[in-house]
Amino acid sequence: MILASASPRRLELLAACGLDIEVRPADINEQRLPDEHPRDLVRRLAEGKAQAAYDALDVPLDDVLVAADTIVWDDNGDVLGKPADAADAAHMLGLLSGKTHHVSTGVCIIVPDAESTRRASFVETTDVSFCTLSEDEIGAYVASGEPMDKAGAYGIQGLGRMLVSGINGDYLNVVGLPVNRTLREIDRLVGGEAYVTRALGGIHE
């Protein structure tokens, strides 16, 4: 499998399914379009990264290319990216404190075929509720350094779990990839259940 993403979390999630992964990230313009809904944005980014990687690589006919992008956004439609600095991280966490926000991951899959290239894309959204955070809690978490490379300034798989009071949806989607839906979509494209079966059995390609 080719993963068109530099995210170490996505790599870990797929490798844990017993898959051999070749990481080939793709760079595209990620600027949001005017009035673009967050779900439309993240789908477009995933599709753009998948196409850019596919165009740059000679993907074997028996291989699968997966690209993904994850964003954090609120009920106003505002997207919270990776913080620019510690002050920005603290500001983001203050905005999320005591509220429910949304984490959307766009996924695009391309399967080369001798006759026609098969592809599919989707968006998975999980709602995440935060505890009401004190200034000391926010300061301590920012000082840990964990928020600095993460959309929304937190990582639910790490110390950031202490900020979360509950979730509605796929937990792994918040980590960075809805693994179950991704593998089942791949199986639909390839016409079988090979990838889900491999994941369940821990069998390497």
Distance between the termini: 9 Å
Q: How much is the average pLDDT?
A: 92
Note the total helix count. 7
Radius of gyration, in angstroms, nearest whole number: 18 Å
Number of E-state strands: 7
Largest sheet: 7 strands, mixed
Low-pLDDT stretches: none
Helix content: 25-40%
Structural class: alpha/beta
Descriptive keywords:
205 residues, single chain, 7 strands, globular, alpha/beta, 7-stranded mixed β-sheet, 7 helices
Protein described:
There is one protein chain. The protein is an alpha/beta fold and 205 residues long. It is built from seven helices and seven strands, in the order βαβαββαββαβααα. Strands 1, 2, 3, 4, 5, 6 and 7 form a seven-stranded mixed sheet that branches. Helix 3 crosses helix 4 (135-143).
Topology overview:
Layout: E1 2-3, H1 8-15, E2 22-23, H2 38-56, E3 65-73, E4 79-80, H3 86-96, E5 100-111, E6 118-130, H4 135-143, E7 164-168, H5 171-175, H6 179-190, H7 194-201
